[in-house]
Every structure is written in structure tokens, then in C-alpha cells.
Amino acid sequence: MQYLSYFNEINILIPLGTWISIGDLDVKFGILLDSLSMVVMVPVGIVTLLVLFYAIDYMKDDPNRNRFLMILSVFAIFMTILVISENYIMMFIGWEFVGIISYLLISFWSTRITANKSALSAILLNRMGDTLFVISIGTMINVFHAVDFDTISLMSPHVDTLILNLLAIMLLIA
């Protein structure tokens, strides 16, 4: 059971570059490996492997099997980006691609009306969540002048609790 947990007290931040640097807003992109991201990576990896193994067997006679498996693999990549992102903008990019690829996976058999209706409902619900996510990122930029997790957690005790509660509710609903 010790293999399923991550007990490193040091957060590993792997900077990959800078996206935007405007005034005091410095948006970087990188990989953050902390205890939360590593604990979440375990079920993401396990579920992804199980779904891939099931799909390989279930779709062995489907002529479009390779396309489905490629879409599923890209879904796993962006789910990983969502989990190990360094800031909220990188998390949003992972979130967006997971939503789009979910639509592609749900509507894979496009000749089925129920698949198309389900995919449309999923994409519409994702767009509502995206709206709240973008509003919360804009609020973070306005209040904190940052979008990275460390800066926001350090500045949170000095910000009005109403704003923090609104941010938390928007992110939770998203």
C-alpha cells in the first residue's frame, strides 16, 4: 500500500518556460509534483490503463479501433497535464482539452443519435463550467496579480474572505 502514496515533503517544480510576462503578471508553465498531484496521478493512471485494456479487447473487430485508442491516449495525456500543472492557466488548458476529447470519445459512433445527444449535453455542461473557470482566473489575476498555486496560497490570508469564498465556489461549480 505504500506504493500508492507519495510522502516527499519537497515539492518538485520543473519550470519549462514563460508564457506571458506583462508588468507584475508573470505566467510560467511547468510541472508541479507535490503530494496532491502524485496521489491523484495514481488513480488517473490505474483507470486509464484499465480503460485502455478494456477498449483494446472490446473493440478488437472495430475498423476504427486505432482512432479510438489514439483519442483515448490523448485524453490520458491531457488528464495528466491537468493534474500536474503548475498554475491555473495550465490547468485550464488541460481542462479544456479533456472536455473536448471527452466530446470526441462520447460521439465516437456518430451514427448513433443517443451518442450525439450525450456528447452535445456533455460539451454544453463543460462550456458552463469553463465560463466559471475563466471568470475565476480573471478574478485571480485582478486580485492576486498571479495565477500560480504558491503565490495564491501565500497571499490568501491577506485577501478578503468573501473574494476567496467566491473563487472557491466558482472553481467548485466549474
Q: Using only CA atoms, what is the Rg?
A: 19 Å
Q: Strand order across the biggest sheet?
A: 1-2
Structure class: mainly alpha
Largest sheet composition: 2 strands, antiparallel
Number of strands: 2
Elements, N to C (H/E): EEHHHHHH
Strand content: 5-15%
Shape: globular
The residue-averaged pLDDT reads 88
**Approximate helicity band:** 55-70%
The first-to-last residue Cα distance is 32 Å
* Count of alpha and pi helical runs: 6
Segments where pLDDT lies below 50 for 5+ residues? Answer: none
Describe what this molecule looks like in 3D:
The chain has helices at 35-58, 65-84, 88-106, 113-144, 149-155, 161-173; strands at 12-22, 25-33. The longest helix has 32 residues, at 113-144. It starts with 11 loop residues before the first strand and ends with a helix. It has six helices and two strands. Helices cover 66% and strands 11% of the residues. It has 174 residues and is mainly alpha-helical. α3 runs antiparallel to α4 (113-144). β1 and β2 form a beta hairpin. The mean pLDDT is 88. The protein has a two-stranded antiparallel sheet with strand order 1-2.
Outline of the structure:
With 174 residues, the protein is mainly α. It contains six helices and two strands, in the order ββαααααα.
